[in-house]
Design a protein that fits this description.
It is built from 10 helices and 4 strands. By secondary structure, it is mainly alpha-helical. Bound molecules: calcium ion (CA).
């Protein structure tokens, strides 16, 4: 992990203090409320994806160490694609069972499409007002399936972390698509706005 300068560390500490409870934790529900306020809407997959970026130990709460670790990783401009692919892996394994299924990847792609529409509207379209029509849903699923089928090797039903990392290493196209599922900029903006 790259070192954080003390100024940005102080900033992060202040933000964390704002949102954490008396036990020094950010509860899942509190975090969910922050996400829904930022995106002006409720999307279960998005809530889960962003929580998973932070909640490394799966405790459903975010502690200071997790908060700083993830934001440092998000903020670093380094070309550490591996670290980012690992984040993409964490947030796409929606049920945290250690692999990504076709349905999980489809759900992630659908949510990312909605987030892209939200961002492209300059945030004038609340996330809650965005639905994908059947045709667009099919297109998004085809895109997700294309990535899934290119990666799934040992088990055609699920992608492991090793498979994901190695596919991203070999194929820049896959890497780009996987990295585009990360909602890091939005997450950073959400925290910056606290
Ligand atoms: Ca899973």
């Amino acid at each position: 992990m790259r070192a954080v300068d003390s100024e940005s560390l102080n900033k992060l500490l202040k933000k964390f203090k704002k949102i954490s409870d008396k036990n020094g934790l950010v509860e899942k529900e509190k975090f969910k409320a922050l996400i829904e306020a930022h995106f002006q809407g409720s999307d279960g997959t998005l809530n889960r994806m962003i929580l998973l970026l932070f909640d490394r130990d799966g405790s459903s709460t975010i502690d200071l160490r997790e908060f700083i670790m993830t934001l440092t990783l998000i903020s670093s401009n380094s070309a550490d694609w591996k670290g980012r692919v690992e984040l993409a892996y964490l947030s796409a394994d929606l049920n945290s069972d250690g692999s990504i299924t076709r349905d999980e990847l489809r759900a992630v792609f659908r949510t990312c499409k909605k987030v892209h529409i939200y961002a492209a509207s300059n945030k004038t379209k609340p996330l809650d007002s965005i639905t994908l029509d059947p045709k667009l849903t099919m297109t998004v699923h085809e895109e997700a399936d294309g990535v899934f089928d290119a990666i799934a090797k040992a088990d055609p039903k699920a992608i492991t972390k090793d498979e994901l990392v190695s596919a991203c290493e070999k194929d820049e196209g896959i890497r780009k698509k996987i990295l585009s599922t990360l909602v890091l900029d939005h997450t950073k903006a959400m925290i910056d706005g606290l």
